[in-house]
Inverse folding.
């Protein structure tokens, strides 16, 4: 079985877990503030994996989102990680030799917030790497961010099912700043930016599809998928 097929199977299983939670978790609304799914690896003597829902990768998981966050799954090439709540994050010891982690979580149906808008189905993916060089390697997520250097610039690539995601919206959060860099991928699924300083850059990409279906008995006509990566970048 291919890793890409395995990733899809895992996330199908996640959807089943969410459905089984029933009254424990409401899938009818997102919090008022923007929250995204972030994965990172801390450079401890024994590297650890951290997972959170927040505006950025440093924000802890709020109490009202923790039960929902626990439906997430994370894995390496060696197998699943056991995630445990710690200090309002989900954490796991990283297996020896692991340099990248994949994660996924099904949120479910998000109802329209404005008249004329439609309900949509929301999926989250995240990729964590031990260093920048790992950002060019795949973890075989259905929607995945990649990064590589081109001189002083960073080239970001978004791939969906291993194909370029054209016109995907990318947001790059500049570290220690309220500044965001907003980009759109070209015909190769690529976008470019030049970092002005060193630090951890939180990057997210969005892909939307007009596709109808139902989840937990609720219909939708739009699918939104977010994928993220935390990039440790040393500015030239």
């Amino acid at each position: 079985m291919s890793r890409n097929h395995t990733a899809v199977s895992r996330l199908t299983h996640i959807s089943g877990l969410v459905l089984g939670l029933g009254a424990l978790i409401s899938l009818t609304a997102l919090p008022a503030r923007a929250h995204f799914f972030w994965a990172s690896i801390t450079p401890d003597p024994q590297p650890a994996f951290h997972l959170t829902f927040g505006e950025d990768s440093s924000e802890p998981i709020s109490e009202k989102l923790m039960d929902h966050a626990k439906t997430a799954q994370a894995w390496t090439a060696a197998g699943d990680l056991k995630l445990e709540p710690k200090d309002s994050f989900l954490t796991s010891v990283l297996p020896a030799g692991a340099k990248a982690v994949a994660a996924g979580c099904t949120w479910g149906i998000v109802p329209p917030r404005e008249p004329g808008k439609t309900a949509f189905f929301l999926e989250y993916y995240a990729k964590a790497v031990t260093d920048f060089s790992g950002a060019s390697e795949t973890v075989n997520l259905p929607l995945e961010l990649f990064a590589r250097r081109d001189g002083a610039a960073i080239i970001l690539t978004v791939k969906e099912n291993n194909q370029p995601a054209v016109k995907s919206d990318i947001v790059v959060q500049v570290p220690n700043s309220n500044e965001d860099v907003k980009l759109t991928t070209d015909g190769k699924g690529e976008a470019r930016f030049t970092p002005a300083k060193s630090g951890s850059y939180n990057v997210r990409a969005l892909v939307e599809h007009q596709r109808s279906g139902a989840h937990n008995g609720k219909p939708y006509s739009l699918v939104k998928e977010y994928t993220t990566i935390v990039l440790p970048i040393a500015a030239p």
